[in-house]
Amino acid sequence: MSVTAGSDGIKDITTPLTDADVQSLKAGDRVRISGVIYTARDAAHGRLLPLIEKGEKLPIDVKGAIIYYTGPTPPQPGQVIGAIGPTTASRMDKFTPALLKLGLKGTMGKGYRGQPVKDALREYRGVYFGAIGGAGAVLSRHIKTAEFVAYEDLGTEAIRRLEVEAFPAIVINDCHGGDLYQDGQKQYARE
Amino acid sequence: MTRDVHVSAIADAVKKLCMEANVSLEPDVLRAFDRALTTERSPAGRQVLQILKDNAELARTKRIPYCQDTGMVVCFVELGQDVHVTGGGLEAAINEGIRQGYKEGYLRASIVKSPFDRVNTGDNTPGVVHVDVTPGAALKIMIMAKGGGCENRSRYTMLTPAAGLPGVKDFVIECVKTAGPDACPPLILGVGIGGTFEKAAILSKKALFRELGSPNPDPMVDALEKELLDKANRLGIGPQGYGGDTTSLGIHILTYPCHITSLPVAVTIECHAHRHKEVTL
Ligand code: SF4
């Protein structure tokens, strides 16, 4: 079991994730993620899709993994990585169901997901985390190591393997149909 | 009397503005975070605002970019008509400054050369440059590092004059709703009303340079800004869209005369990473 509840009400998550881990997460849960996660965004997804369609091996093992949608700034000398906040997730909607089908358990970004992604989260048991958009400097402190694993020619859009420690996030869409964006807005809307 | 300004001074100034803007938020934005913290009811929302403040502090002290999307540089220049730019072209000098600033500041190169082949230019150039020629011999350069996520939710509409003020209000609020969590709320809105299609869009960008929280000099427009801000903050979207009262930190409007048949409205969506700086040479 790699999800445990901290005494402060925040859930600690260690990758990789199992179906049971995913099922224990609910929209609105605050989490701290530790372990290995991968970065990929528009261009990298664009290269993964044809491989999936042809049934070829992917450069990363997506089983149980979390993909973080981000394009960091270059590290300064002596830094592991530069600023590293999330990018808009909906641009990856086209690719996400196919990856979830292959066993990907988590995606992390910011902003709404489309219905096909939410359906796929239910069907294949996946979870969508929100990271704080624009908190690039704070989030960089939670990255312990960063290395390229594929498509280095894409620069900021390359696939990286990150070791993260207590990376703060929140569950936006769970595998039970829960949606923090909808719930939160309903709770605070004033007509 | 004309005054000579060499392109190297312009490039140097732009370089510094780009590097500073990306690590050091202006005090108007930080004050807006503090104001929001006093009114935000949602615990998750307050926590986000606090992290944004911490992020600003860390960015400034460690010189890590505030946000990894270090933006496309949008540059407004007020070029005094008595200024003589020497040694090369004005726009080339601005782009040289961007090139140097993004390299030296370890900022992200986020610009592709062609909208079709999408090959990165590697140095975040070119920027988007707007020049106004003004009386006098001053050269004012204002830059904004404009994030893509929020820019992508910017919108334009051409209303009929009959749609009037209510139509404008509905459109602006609609823009906030569709931007939602995608544009990293709390948002700042620049709204251009009037002119022509392109004039309204440029005004919507320019409006963002006014000090956040300062009143609009036109009392009628000021009241409209406040009404829209209140409406936006009643939507419940809140910081990062997690639910809350702080969906927007400010709505700034610029207007311009327009044709008897037209009511153009452009809305630039800006995020809390409102990185703007200016200098007068
Ligand atoms: S919308 Fe703004 S805060 Fe969010 S990722 Fe883009 S530039 Fe950063």
Write the layout of secondary structure elements.
The complex is a heterodimer of chains A (191) and B (281).
Chain A: E1 3-5, E2 11-14, H1 19-23, E3 30-39, H2 42-53, E4 66-68, H3 96-101, E5 106-109, H4 115-124, E6 127-130, H5 136-140, E7 143-150, E8 159-173, H6 180-188
Parallel strand pairs in A: 2-3, 3-4, 4-5, 5-6
Antiparallel strand pairs in A: 1-2, 3-8, 6-8, 7-8
Chain B: E1 3-6, H1 7-23, H2 27-39, H3 43-62, E2 72-80, E3 83-86, H4 90-104, E4 128-134, E5 139-146, H5 148-151, E6 155-159, H6 164-179, E7 187-195, H7 197-206, H8 219-233, E8 248-258, E9 263-270, E10 275-280
Parallel strand pairs in B: 1-3, 2-4, 7-8
Antiparallel strand pairs in B: 2-5, 5-10, 6-9, 7-9
Bound molecules: iron/sulfur cluster.
Q: What attributes does this structure have?
A:
heterodimer, A: 191 residues, alpha/beta, fumarase, 6 helices, B: 281 residues, Dihydrodipicolinate Reductase, domain 2, 2 domains, four-stranded mixed β-sheet, 8 helices, 39% helix, globular, binds iron/sulfur cluster
Short description:
The complex is a heterodimer of chains A (191) and B (281). Chain A has 191 residues and is of the alpha/beta class. In chain A, strands 3-4-5-6-8 form a five-stranded mixed β-barrel.
Can you describe what's shown?
The complex is a heterodimer of chains A (about 190) and B (about 280). Chain A is an alpha/beta fold. Chain A has one domain (about 5-190): fumarase (Alpha-Beta Barrel). Helix content of chain A is about 25%, strand content about 25%. Chain A contains six helices and eight strands, in the order E-E-H-E-H-E-H-E-H-E-H-E-E-H. In chain A, strands 3-4-5-6-8 form a five-stranded mixed barrel. Chain A is globular, with a radius of gyration of 16 Å. Chain B has about 280 residues and is α/β, with parallel strands linked by helices. Chain B has a four-stranded mixed sheet with strand order 4-2-5-10. A four-stranded mixed sheet of chain B has the order 6-9-7-8. Chain B is built from eight helices and ten strands. Chain B folds into two domains: about 5-25 and about 65-145, Dihydrodipicolinate Reductase, domain 2; about 150-275, no CATH class. Chain B has helices spanning about 5-25, 25-40, 45-60, 90-105, 150, 165-180, 195-205, 220-235; strands at about 5, 70-80, 85, 130-135, 140-145, 155-160, 185-195, 250-260, 265-270, 275-280. In chain B, helix 2 packs antiparallel against helix 3. Chain B starts with a strand and ends with a strand. Chains A and B meet through helix 5 and helix 6 of A and helix 3 of B. The complex binds iron/sulfur cluster (SF4). Iron/sulfur cluster sits at the interface of chains B and A.
